[in-house]
Amino acid sequence: MTRKIQTHFGSVLKASAQAAGCLLLAFLMTSAKAQGVPQTQLPRTTLNAGMHLIQVQLAQDFEQRQIGLMWRKEMPQNEGMLFVFEQPSIQCFWMRNTLLPLTAAFVLDDGTIVNLADMKPMNDESHCSKKPVRFVLEMNQGWFAKRNIQAGFKLTGSAFSK
Known about the structure:
Largest sheet: 7 strands, mixed
Shape: globular
Number of strands: 9
Helix content: 25-40%
CATH class of the largest domain: Mainly Beta
Number of domains: 2
CATH superfamily of the largest domain: Protein of unknown function DUF192
Strand content: 25-35%
CATH topology of the largest domain: Jelly Rolls
Oligomer: single chain
Strand order of the largest sheet: 6-5-8-3-2-1-9
Low-confidence stretches: 19-33
Mean pLDDT: 85
Structural class: alpha+beta
């Protein structure tokens, strides 16, 4: 009887180890597959820049903010991504794995743009806010300039406090 229990227990351990190995392999394959795939299913909201409406995806947690607009090959003209942080801080962005030229607007809680930074695709150069901010809005490069939107301009929308 003891031999049967040991054999059964050994079989269960072997099966458990195989199952764990399969789960690890599936996780690694899923992670590898996720790399190189743009995130397009984030929650959305609308912001106003004067008379201009901006449709933004909200990157609200660490992983969403880390991926950001990586691997996007195109983005509609009036769309962007709003990065939402838990508290104001000096925010710095770079463009690793980001294919599109973007402009980052560093934004205070009330929607006021502190500063803008044009960023080159596939570049690790850091672009930082001049003050602590809780929001960073990334748009296609040139979007703000074409509309004469500069530091001091106030964006509105439900994301910002009044």
